[in-house]
Design brief:
mainly beta, binds [4Cu:2S] cluster, Immunoglobulin-like, binds dinuclear copper ion
Length: 632
Amino acid sequence: MDENNQDNENQPALSRRGFLGASAVASAAGVAGVTGLASTVMTRDAYAKAADDAMANAAVHPGELDEYYGFWSGGQSGEVRIMGIPSMRELMRIPVFNVDSATGWGLTNESKAIRGASDKFLCGDAHHPHMSMVDGKYDGKYVFINDKLNTRVARIRCDIMKCDKILDVPNVQAIHGLRVQKVPHTKYVLCNGEFRVPTPNDGRDLNDPTKYTTMYNVIDAESMEMAFQIIVDGNLDNTDADYTGRFAASTCYNSEGGVTLAETMRNERDWVVVFDLLAAEKAVKDGKATTIGDSKVPVLDGRKKANSPYTRYIPVPKSPHGLNTSPDGKYFVANGKLSPTVSIIAIDKLSDLFAGKIKERDAVIAEPELGLGPLHTAFDGRGNAYTTLFIDSQIAKWNVEDAIKAYNGEKINYIKQKLDVHYQPGHNHTTMGETRDADGKYLVSLCKFSKDRFLPVGPLRAENDQLIDISGDEMKLVHDGPAFAEPHDCMIVHRSKMKPSKLWTRDDPFFAGTVAMAKKDGITLETDNKVIRDGKKVRVYMTSIAPNFGMGEFTVKQGDEVTVTVTNLDSIEDVTHGFAMTNHGVSMEIGPQATSSVTFTADQPGVFWYYCHWFCHALHMEMRGRMLVEKA
Ligand code: CUK
Ligand code: CUA
């Protein structure tokens, strides 16, 4: 308790952290001058008591359920994780761009079909998980996530909590920022191409960066096909949509169009690019789009020099990073990263901007100074914003309307509190905070470094996802949560929005391809246990009911390509079976009432035991059978 409290600047005791904070403030003052903190001085005991109360409120006792689902990106692990909030317990992992031994993701035929052309990639870099919405509120249907590494966007179905679509985005490289259209519903998934490359990137213009481009990508959320793309200047970073359905905005660094670090940092201001989605949609309908290379995707030119009706470039300082829409629908907030400020853009001025009635900078109505390295901002629905300060290792809580007043000359302290976090936060996220339902209960700070907060585990350390109670006037740190690489971003959904399935339904499209294959073979999956030989291809169909596979043995010839299809007839909640074939790299999950299939080559003669590797029954160890492989 006391150890933690020593790290809080609001108390009199000067800690190691206090010294660090003081020197950071001093150097910040040298750069740009720093707004003073509200001086709330609590005694150490009062602080300890308040923190204890907050922790007691956030406690989820054994057997109790969490109030929120959190969806966490898994960064360079390529997966998505489901967390319980406020317990911060990890409830499930959803493999997406990675390959997963437990579920067989990337091994089963069902998952390979979903992974499509990019199935050959065994890794990914997932940053931004965001849920589909209706009228600016979560609808509990899908979560979308980007893959920066292999330029993909995936969709997760929230009934079964599995990835059901992966789209390879053409014409661009590295999908980074991703959000959804919030209003009237998520028709489009919106995402940024980050790196600039030749267009098309087919070997031309290799060393002529003036010809490189990147694009804003608009994806049809239901079909998961590209709707259209918009070429822009600069490197796009993060993005968010408004609450009218018309506008979206992206931060953009490297307005210089440089390729080296020094080149990309030259300008004091880069941009927020604002997109008029409706104007772009109309331009595509009116045939104003072209295509690039072999791709059929409609492409619009939204570069500055094109003076397009669907883009505007608002100059903001300096290499801005996060872009967050306030839940009242009034503002886009662009986080300055290399500037100690955030830029507040008034969304209700944007139609005038597009109509040419005001200038770009007129849409910026305040640029409050918050501290060093502002990366991302979250909102509580009560008019307050919470911005991560990467360099200061703090969250700054500030009042948006007060910041606007201060910008207009009023003497008012818009910063309400700064809370130390441990350490170097990137994204933060409030409960329901990216929707109209923002409820201001909890804030999660995704800290990039844990340093001394956990037992050391070798040179590679966990990150630290911290839970902060924001329901009162003061932010209170209530939980440290170690996390593996690298939850860039998360979003937190009230459990009332979610309706996950308890069992699979037999007609689920997830395994429709396998059902069609069985039908061709004249197999009834729910009853048949049969081997079908088709030249060198052998298809083995079996059922499973704890603790038995429907088939205790089957025989193939060395060199056969074997497809094993298992249908789990158990219809009891939580009774999942597995199918694992020894010495063949075969492992898959078969959920209750699901069908899963996997294909491998029986390349060695001999006896190979297959077994169930998801614990299902007192006789789970005995749930097994033999594959007999005859010598060729
Ligand atoms: S980015 Cu990582 S901390 Cu990919 Cu949303 Cu800002
Ligand atoms: Cu079936 Cu273990």
